[in-house]
Amino acid sequence: MKGDDSDNLEFFVEGIVICLDVSPGMRIKCCSDDPRTPLQIAIECIQWILQRRIFSESKDEIGMVIFGSETNNPLFKGNQYRNVSIFRKLEVVDWDFDIAHKRERSVCAYR
User: Which helix (H) or strand (E) holds 45?
Assistant: First the structure.
């Protein structure tokens, strides 16, 4: 239909949730050629995605869930959803989505 808002793409916003494994195995270097751990590589990839969204002035909302971490989520009951944390709720991405600095205090993996 002409004039129908559903045909206008500027009204559509995506919601993207990034899931990141921060368990101890992700902190072990696996390649002798690359000094980075799989966790460091994953964080660099996520930062690249976030930077592209910021520079394109995207209104899409991005959230992040980490697993292999302390438990911090509203669904935790008994043994369900253990070691899963909401790192960031769905929001328009901005420079406060700083994984590299926040990860040290919020991704203390279970030992």
Answer: helix 38-55
